[in-house]
Design goal:
DNA polymerase, domain 1, single chain, alpha/beta, 11 helices, 7 strands, five-stranded parallel sheet, about 200 residues, Rossmann fold
Protein backbone atom coordinates (compact mmCIF):
# COMPACT_ATOMS: atom_id res chain seq x y z
CA UNK A 1 0.00 0.00 0.00
CA UNK A 2 0.96 3.67 -0.31
CA UNK A 3 2.81 4.99 2.73
CA UNK A 4 0.03 6.45 4.87
CA UNK A 5 -0.44 10.16 5.29
CA UNK A 6 -3.36 9.99 7.73
CA UNK A 7 -3.97 7.93 10.86
CA UNK A 8 -7.65 8.18 11.75
CA UNK A 9 -8.81 6.98 15.17
CA UNK A 10 -12.12 6.30 16.80
CA UNK A 11 -12.10 7.51 20.41
CA UNK A 12 -14.20 5.45 22.82
CA UNK A 13 -12.94 1.92 23.37
CA UNK A 14 -9.86 2.63 21.26
CA UNK A 15 -7.98 5.48 22.95
CA UNK A 16 -10.40 6.41 25.72
CA UNK A 17 -11.85 4.10 28.35
CA UNK A 18 -15.64 4.17 28.16
CA UNK A 19 -17.69 2.32 30.75
CA UNK A 20 -20.98 3.36 29.13
CA UNK A 21 -22.30 -0.05 28.16
CA UNK A 22 -21.63 -1.49 31.61
CA UNK A 23 -23.29 1.47 33.33
CA UNK A 24 -26.23 1.38 30.92
CA UNK A 25 -26.69 -2.32 31.53
CA UNK A 26 -26.95 -1.60 35.26
CA UNK A 27 -29.94 0.67 34.55
CA UNK A 28 -31.91 -1.78 32.42
CA UNK A 29 -34.80 -3.79 33.88
CA UNK A 30 -33.17 -6.91 32.41
CA UNK A 31 -29.45 -7.14 31.76
CA UNK A 32 -28.21 -7.89 28.24
CA UNK A 33 -25.01 -9.40 26.90
CA UNK A 34 -22.26 -6.93 26.03
CA UNK A 35 -22.67 -7.66 22.33
CA UNK A 36 -26.45 -7.23 22.46
CA UNK A 37 -26.43 -3.93 24.32
CA UNK A 38 -23.73 -2.51 22.06
CA UNK A 39 -25.65 -3.54 18.95
CA UNK A 40 -28.89 -2.07 20.31
CA UNK A 41 -27.17 1.21 21.20
CA UNK A 42 -25.44 1.60 17.85
CA UNK A 43 -28.65 0.94 15.93
CA UNK A 44 -30.95 2.99 18.17
CA UNK A 45 -32.54 5.94 16.29
CA UNK A 46 -32.66 7.97 19.52
CA UNK A 47 -28.89 7.66 19.90
CA UNK A 48 -28.30 8.30 16.21
CA UNK A 49 -30.32 11.53 16.28
CA UNK A 50 -28.39 12.78 19.32
CA UNK A 51 -25.02 11.90 17.81
CA UNK A 52 -26.03 13.69 14.61
CA UNK A 53 -26.70 16.84 16.62
CA UNK A 54 -30.42 16.74 15.85
CA UNK A 55 -31.74 16.69 19.43
CA UNK A 56 -30.93 18.39 22.71
CA UNK A 57 -29.47 16.40 25.61
CA UNK A 58 -32.78 16.66 27.46
CA UNK A 59 -34.80 15.36 24.51
CA UNK A 60 -32.29 12.56 23.98
CA UNK A 61 -32.50 11.51 27.63
CA UNK A 62 -36.28 11.61 27.75
CA UNK A 63 -36.67 9.58 24.57
CA UNK A 64 -34.01 7.05 25.56
CA UNK A 65 -35.43 6.49 29.04
CA UNK A 66 -38.84 5.81 27.55
CA UNK A 67 -37.61 3.60 24.71
CA UNK A 68 -35.31 1.52 26.92
CA UNK A 69 -37.72 1.39 29.89
CA UNK A 70 -35.22 2.93 32.31
CA UNK A 71 -36.61 4.19 35.63
CA UNK A 72 -34.46 7.28 36.15
CA UNK A 73 -35.05 11.01 35.95
CA UNK A 74 -33.71 13.00 33.00
CA UNK A 75 -31.28 15.02 35.14
CA UNK A 76 -29.91 11.99 36.94
CA UNK A 77 -29.46 10.09 33.70
CA UNK A 78 -27.64 12.97 31.99
CA UNK A 79 -25.30 13.37 34.97
CA UNK A 80 -24.44 9.68 34.80
CA UNK A 81 -24.22 9.63 31.00
CA UNK A 82 -21.77 12.53 30.93
CA UNK A 83 -19.38 10.63 33.21
CA UNK A 84 -19.25 7.40 31.19
CA UNK A 85 -16.07 8.21 29.19
CA UNK A 86 -13.32 8.01 31.80
CA UNK A 87 -10.37 9.48 29.93
CA UNK A 88 -7.44 8.31 27.85
CA UNK A 89 -5.98 4.88 28.50
CA UNK A 90 -2.54 5.13 30.15
CA UNK A 91 0.02 5.77 27.43
CA UNK A 92 -2.47 6.94 24.79
CA UNK A 93 -1.53 10.62 24.94
CA UNK A 94 2.16 9.78 24.64
CA UNK A 95 1.45 7.51 21.67
CA UNK A 96 -0.48 10.25 19.89
CA UNK A 97 2.33 12.72 20.49
CA UNK A 98 4.78 10.27 18.95
CA UNK A 99 2.59 9.59 15.92
CA UNK A 100 1.93 13.28 15.26
CA UNK A 101 5.61 13.76 14.48
CA UNK A 102 5.30 11.54 11.39
CA UNK A 103 1.64 11.52 10.29
CA UNK A 104 -1.48 13.61 10.21
CA UNK A 105 -3.32 12.23 13.23
CA UNK A 106 -7.08 12.73 13.45
CA UNK A 107 -10.06 11.36 15.32
CA UNK A 108 -13.45 10.48 13.88
CA UNK A 109 -15.98 9.83 16.63
CA UNK A 110 -19.68 9.22 16.85
CA UNK A 111 -20.07 11.60 19.76
CA UNK A 112 -22.36 14.21 21.23
CA UNK A 113 -22.25 17.68 22.74
CA UNK A 114 -21.95 16.47 26.35
CA UNK A 115 -18.99 14.16 25.84
CA UNK A 116 -17.27 16.37 23.28
CA UNK A 117 -17.40 19.46 25.50
CA UNK A 118 -16.19 17.48 28.50
CA UNK A 119 -12.93 16.71 26.68
CA UNK A 120 -12.74 20.08 24.87
CA UNK A 121 -13.04 18.40 21.50
CA UNK A 122 -9.75 16.51 22.06
CA UNK A 123 -8.19 19.40 20.15
CA UNK A 124 -4.78 19.27 21.80
CA UNK A 125 -4.22 15.62 20.93
CA UNK A 126 -5.03 15.57 17.20
CA UNK A 127 -4.26 17.64 14.14
CA UNK A 128 -7.94 17.31 13.20
CA UNK A 129 -10.80 16.41 15.58
CA UNK A 130 -14.07 15.28 14.00
CA UNK A 131 -17.34 14.38 15.70
CA UNK A 132 -20.60 13.22 14.19
CA UNK A 133 -22.69 15.79 16.08
CA UNK A 134 -20.72 18.63 14.49
CA UNK A 135 -20.33 17.10 11.04
CA UNK A 136 -23.98 16.08 10.69
CA UNK A 137 -22.88 12.67 9.39
CA UNK A 138 -22.23 9.48 11.32
CA UNK A 139 -20.32 6.20 11.08
CA UNK A 140 -20.74 3.69 9.50
CA UNK A 141 -22.34 5.81 6.75
CA UNK A 142 -20.06 6.20 3.73
CA UNK A 143 -20.63 9.95 3.72
CA UNK A 144 -18.98 10.21 7.13
CA UNK A 145 -15.72 8.71 5.91
CA UNK A 146 -15.81 10.80 2.73
CA UNK A 147 -16.19 13.92 4.84
CA UNK A 148 -13.33 12.92 7.16
CA UNK A 149 -10.99 12.36 4.22
CA UNK A 150 -11.88 15.78 2.79
CA UNK A 151 -11.35 17.48 6.14
CA UNK A 152 -7.94 15.81 6.45
CA UNK A 153 -7.00 16.32 2.78
CA UNK A 154 -6.26 12.62 2.25
CA UNK A 155 -7.20 10.01 -0.32
CA UNK A 156 -8.56 6.63 0.87
CA UNK A 157 -5.30 4.86 -0.02
CA UNK A 158 -3.38 7.37 2.14
CA UNK A 159 -5.42 6.70 5.28
CA UNK A 160 -5.46 4.06 7.99
CA UNK A 161 -8.45 3.83 10.31
CA UNK A 162 -8.79 2.26 13.78
CA UNK A 163 -12.17 1.49 15.37
CA UNK A 164 -13.70 -0.95 17.86
CA UNK A 165 -16.86 -1.39 15.74
CA UNK A 166 -16.68 -4.00 13.00
CA UNK A 167 -19.46 -2.22 11.07
CA UNK A 168 -17.36 0.93 10.94
CA UNK A 169 -14.25 -1.00 9.93
CA UNK A 170 -16.09 -2.77 7.09
CA UNK A 171 -17.54 0.52 5.86
CA UNK A 172 -14.11 2.14 5.75
CA UNK A 173 -12.64 -0.82 3.88
CA UNK A 174 -15.36 -0.58 1.22
CA UNK A 175 -14.04 2.91 0.42
CA UNK A 176 -10.48 1.66 0.03
CA UNK A 177 -9.27 2.74 3.48
CA UNK A 178 -7.06 0.25 5.29
CA UNK A 179 -8.87 -0.33 8.58
CA UNK A 180 -8.16 -2.24 11.78
CA UNK A 181 -10.65 -3.57 14.29
CA UNK A 182 -9.07 -2.75 17.65
CA UNK A 183 -10.37 -2.77 21.21
CA UNK A 184 -8.19 -0.88 23.65
CA UNK A 185 -4.74 0.63 23.44
CA UNK A 186 -2.91 -2.70 23.45
CA UNK A 187 -4.54 -3.72 20.18
CA UNK A 188 -3.83 -0.26 18.72
CA UNK A 189 -0.13 -0.75 19.51
CA UNK A 190 -0.20 -4.21 17.95
CA UNK A 191 -1.80 -2.98 14.74
CA UNK A 192 0.64 -0.08 14.47
CA UNK A 193 3.63 -2.37 15.05
CA UNK A 194 2.46 -5.00 12.57
CA UNK A 195 2.02 -2.26 9.95
CA UNK A 196 5.47 -0.78 10.71
CA UNK A 197 3.91 2.55 11.62
CA UNK A 198 5.79 3.11 14.87
CA UNK A 199 8.91 5.06 14.07
Amino acid sequence: MTHPKLLLFDIGGVLVENVGFDRLNDLLPTRMSNAAIKSKWLSCPVVRDFELGLTSPETFAQRLLEKWNISLGVGAFLAAFTSWPKGFYPGAVELLQRLRQHYTVACLSNSNALHWERFDGFRQHFHVSLSSHLLGVIKPDEECFDRALRECDAAPREAIFFDDSLDNVHSARKLGIQAFHVCGLGEVHRALSESSLLQ
